[in-house]
Amino acid sequence: MKRIVSGIKPTGTLTLGNYIGAIKQFVLLQQSMPEDEFFLFIADLHALTTPQEPTELRKRIKEIAGMYLACGLNPEKTVFYIQSEIKEHAELGYLLQCFTYMGELERMTQYKDKVKKQESSLSSAMFTYPSLMAADIILYDADFVPVGDDQKQHLELTRDIASRFNGRFRDFFTVPEPIIPKVGSRIMDLQNPEKKMSKSDESDKGYVSLFDDPNIILKKIKSAVTDSIGIVQYDVDNQPGIANLLTIYTSMTDESIENIVSKYNGLGYKEFKEDLATIVSKKVGEIQQRYNEIISSNTLDNILDQGRQIAQQIAYKKLEKCKQKLGLGRKRK
What we know:
This protein has 13 helices and 5 strands. It is mainly α. It folds into 2 domains: about 5-185 and about 295-325, Rossmann fold (3-Layer(aba) Sandwich); about 215-295, Orthogonal Bundle (Tyrosyl-Transfer RNA Synthetase), CATH 1.10.240.10. The strands form 2 sheets. The chain has a 3-stranded parallel beta sheet with strand order 1-2-3. A two-stranded parallel ribbon has the order 4-5. Helix 4 (about 90-95) crosses helix 7 (about 125-140), helix 4 (about 90-95) packs parallel to helix 13 and helix 10 packs across helix 12 (about 270-295). The protein starts with a strand and ends in a 7-residue tail after the last helix.
């Protein structure tokens, strides 16, 4: 039996890109790997790398957890928990800083981008958080980690840190492998298809939130940027807008891009975008209905309580063994 570990940071709103690239992929993994176990956590400690309003942060934690369940997460196959409720994450995160080099952290894309933009008041956590991210994964001896194209770098660092620790203390941590979804791993902005759809954008026209009103979703998809070519075809270089919409279409319907392109042969963008808008709006509406049922019951808290209990037991045992390896504390008799 293999173990799959994944987390999501509760900042901003969950978008259609999050659903297609992360949430749905996690659900599909559960269905395709019935004999394996899945660990999923809300990475609220990572949210603190930038200032957060406490009330809003707690609200988003609950929203994200509820939305994962509404999107089809199987709670019977998932250890579902909140990162900050397992104190071993933070403790192992510090220990792994001692096995992480400054040069490695300086090469992390998110840190480099912020330095390049000359952003002021960067916290030290923005620099060191990849060590905590590594702890999130190897604390549970994850065999696999679902990652998007933009997350490969973090997993590679995690693998390097685990291997470095193992080199000194023999094989202690499992070195995780990536699972990269074939379709939908990177959904682009509806107004600027050259950049990834992001929940942190100042304008909300470029992304669809899973909490958007269905009528708003219809408008956003219909107003998505395309081009003047006028042919529905998958051409990322010359038609990035249409290619992005095709990726959304195939991800929401599981219909092949070839069949979708054939369906709209000889038709313009208007029919294509109207159909896609209806598909997305209907699907998100169904998810929202399930979310409202979950959030108004005790289901979510019960699942998170159970997940905390299981994760706590595993994390405690692993961390204590790690501290013994490092010579910390008193030796157990």
